[in-house]
Design a protein that fits this description.
heterodimer; A: 117 residues; mainly beta; 6-stranded mixed β-sheet; 56% strand; B: 117 residues; 4-stranded antiparallel β-sheet; 0% helix
């Protein structure tokens, strides 16, 4: 079974500063994918960034980047130049693909991030 | 491209009543998911369909919850009878299997917020 752990229930950061959200996971799979999803207050969950486990290079999407440490099973999200619109719940997710079942996703408990003006 | 559609957005019922939620996934997405998200927690998978077949319903309380996906397109989640602890947001999501080197992504609907009094 796969488990995803986010050990920081709440975090805050000053506007324009940098913040890192932690995520660890446990799996015996070798091929899998990792995601960070963002859920703004009362709004839809959207994808922030994804990482393929077979890729050594860390993914980057504008102000968002990850630090993927496969051996340590760690997948942290760094948000640079934080903006007020980054205030949201952030969920780390693990995905494996099964030929019969399709994509199977496992979510962490989330980190509530508040950006302070 | 139209997103995942869900209805109703909000529903208030009394305990022991029944409720049904509807979801229409993105066209062509074979995999459909129903998640339960209790306030402040991460999404919990209730049931996963691959086309019109169930591939995972291990966490679905089958004594009161049921779901179907006729014709492998839209889906309905029913709760009967509802309990106080069923108060949550019910998220529907769909995903593609992905292509070589590009993982399938999970697309969420806006959710259906259920309050059980």
């Amino acid at each position: 079974a796969q488990t995803v752990t986010q050990s920081q229930p709440e975090m805050s950061v000053q506007e324009a500063e940098t913040v890192t959200l932690s995520c660890t996971y446990d799996t015996s799979e070798n091929n899998y994918y990792l995601f960070w999803y963002k859920q703004p207050p009362s709004r839809q969950m959207i994808l922030v960034i994804r990482q393929e486990a077979y890729k050594q290079q860390n993914a980057t999407e504008n102000r968002f980047s990850v630090n993927f440490q496969k051996a340590a099973k760690s997948f942290s999200l760094k948000i640079s130049d934080s903006q007020l619109g980054d205030t949201a719940m952030y969920f780390c997710a693990f995905m494996k693909h099964d030929l019969l079942a399709g994509n199977q996703f496992y979510f962490g408990t989330g980190t509530s991030l508040t950006v302070i003006p | 491209e139209a997103g995942v559609a869900q209805s109703p957005r909000y529903k208030i019922i009394e305990k022991r009543q029944s409720v049904a939620f509807w979801c229409n996934p993105i066209s062509g997405h074979a995999t459909l998911y129903w998640y339960q998200q209790i306030l402040g927690q991460g999404p919990k998978l209730l049931i996963q369909f691959q086309n019109n077949g169930v591939v995972d319903d291990s966490q679905l309380p089958k004594d009161r919850f049921s779901a179907e996906r006729l014709k492998g397109v839209d889906s309905t989640l029913k709760i009967q009878p509802a309990k106080l602890e069923d108060s949550a947001v019910y998220l529907c999501a769909s995903s593609t299997p992905g292509t070589s080197g590009v993982p399938g992504e999970l697309f969420f609907g806006e959710g259906s917020r259920l309050t059980v009094l």
